[in-house]
Hints:
The chain is mainly α and 288 residues long. 72% of the residues lie in helices and 0% in strands. It has helices at 28-47, 75-80, 85-111, 116-128, 132-142, 144-161, 168-191, 194-223, 231-287. Helix 6 packs parallel to helix 9, helix 7 (168-191) runs antiparallel to helix 9 (231-287) and helix 8 (194-223) packs antiparallel against helix 9 (231-287). The longest helix has 57 residues, at 231-287. It starts with 27 loop residues before the first helix and ends with a helix.
Amino acid sequence: MATTNATAPKSAPKAKKQSQGFTGIKSGLAVIACCAVVAVCVYLFLFGEASHFSNADATFSVFSDTDWEPVVGDLMGTVYKGGFIVPIIWTLLFTVLALSIERFFAIKTAYGKSSLAKFVANIKAALVANDLQRAKQLCDAQRGSVANVVGATLATYAEMEGNNDLTKEQKVLAIQKSLEEATALEMPTMQENLPIIGTIVTLGTLTGLLGTVIGMIKSFSAMGGEGGADSAALSTGISEALVNTASGIATGAAAVISYNYFTNKIDRLTFALDEVGFSIVQTFNATH
């Protein structure tokens, strides 16, 4: 005859994620590929346009510009002379910008429709008044990841109130488990694509450094050639070095600002979840 463990708490109902609007782009590689196409097109057909060079002939081709000199004061022509590293760095920069916009809307959706601090305060007030119905209404109106987690936890809270088979400690454990499971479902959505931005923080700077080294190698090669330094080759190498240095620094700076900003937003959301979760558990402890 099969036996059951009557003292074990029943498994808390699993939280179901509901559609809450924009939750982010799942394929970061697709974003990188699109940004690479845009970067190459901008590099070749905008910055490499013949009007940016003083000695470009009528048979202009973006693949035959080795000896062309940028028009004095023309920044686009100077940037174009940075070489093949430039579109690679731009790919990283465009990726940071695209994913930053994507994360902005995704995390905004996760926060919900109104102020997160106000929502947490209202939930705590409803719990103090032991008004679970009001708390559920607040979750339905707020939407977003925090509301999803709180709603799932409140559902377990209500179930435990009507459960006479478990001890108080087991009920509290079930509520805590429900909170943890709901949080585990929501967190990956908020952190989607952030590792890519975090990687570009270092990769952008290193790629810029690579371009700088390549440009300096060209400069020293021109200086070491027969007959003294070739001024055209020397200027090309220096331009490549400086353009890639600037592009790499800009990319790394944009990435670190974006990564830290969104990490801070997620931390604030996590703190709000911890606060309201603690309130739910303490309310159950105090009233049951």
